[in-house]
Amino acid sequence: MNVTFLDASHPHWSRKLEQAGVLLGAGANPTLFPYHFLYVTLSKIGGKLAFFEANGATIGVGFLFPRRLSTSAEGVRRTYTLRFHAAPGHVCDPQIITAACQRAMPEAAFVFYDPQGALSYYRTSKLIGVVDIGRPDADEAAASRAIQRLVWGSPDEFLYPSDIHSAEFAAGTSLVARVDGKVAGFLFGFYAFGGAPLPADWTERYNGGFRIESQTLGVLPDYRGLRIANLLKKRQAELAWREGIGIVTWTADPLQAPNAALNFGLLKAVSFEFAPDLYPFRNELNRVHASRFGLTWLVGSKRVREAPALGARADILDLTRRPQIPRANDGCDDARFDLDADVIAIETPADWTALQAHDPAQAQAWRSLTDALFQHYIGLAPGQYTVTGVGVAEEKRFLLAERSEDRLWQRLGA
Ligand SMILES: CC(C)(COP(=O)(O)OP(=O)(O)OC[C@H]1O[C@@H](n2cnc3c(N)ncnc32)[C@H](O)[C@@H]1OP(=O)(O)O)[C@@H](O)C(=O)NCCC(=O)NCCS
Questions:
Q1: pLDDT tens digits, residue range 66-86?
Q2: What is the DSSP letter of 376?
């Protein structure tokens, strides 16, 4: 048997993924990851696609997920979860499959995982105020799939498989929030081997070689505003730091003002990465092209750890009292690319979801203008800025960005 490993650097990456999807019945197979995740995120977290072939036929497809990074006298060793799907009509021996991987990548280790095999779930529980946060049992894991469907209005092929919450898959983060015994929200994420370059000494200080990429956070509409998102994220940070993981990353639409308030104002994540048109999908929350910030959350830093799980409020700066902070735009016109202040403000729509639903032309104008501003201003290069906060001026919403420089890295990284 022969195995070939591929990642997004392969010239026919999307075609190979589509080939895997057709073989494994994408759309009708609830154990397959959504295409947009495989296309964009799998490689980003250090994962790979594996094709297993025998006698000229593909007998199975594997998805390698980062699981562990161990350091010993021999060096650094990567352990992957080998999420294996046999091709229809084939029965594969896990030992033979694992041995083929081992031969092809002798420096790594593999843990075979069958998403349709016998799996176990272990429920954990921690009551914080009225919200119970913990790992889901099997029913709750299944419920989180229904919440994804409800929150994003997505068809089934966009939903994540519920077995990712199993003990055997060992996702980097697997949490649900319960209110009166019912699942009200969920958060999951995956381990990552490295990621985007970090400033200053953050890689050494916060163990940048092994991170958690937080994938999806959702709270049912009836339960919003109860600080459930905040509690899920704080618990994620606490568990990650306890495991020795100092960096949690995720992506967010920069134009969703409530998420910006949560991410920057309350959780104290920062962003120095911007990707225009990152994801190929459209849904109720993404009617125009899906541009994203990459967020970095230093879960071991003082600034993050000092914010209490209960009782903290988002820091939202009132810009009417800070006229000295220059604004890069006024609504969706009038962009300025010549700002040179220590802190700048970039305006975002007050209600991006409603704007996309009711005025697609204006939504597109906002997206295009802010794409240009973020591409110009946001980054680690000299003269660029890092998003660290949010502001308001009456009805208007803003992102606040500080000059990317040593002084800032020292303050944020302390
Ligand atoms: C974004 C989302 C997860 C927030 O969940 P939530 O449990 O209601 O959020 P919390 O109660 O923990 O709010 C925490 C902070 O987020 C911000 N926030 C949340 N909802 C907000 C809203 N509707 N308007 C303004 N700010 C809001 C606030 O800053 C709030 O803190 P504050 O009250 O001190 O200002 C939820 O609205 C949701 O599921 N949205 C759709 C899916 C999504 O966008 N997921 C996140 C990206 S993957």
A1: 999 998 888 899 999 999 999
A2: H
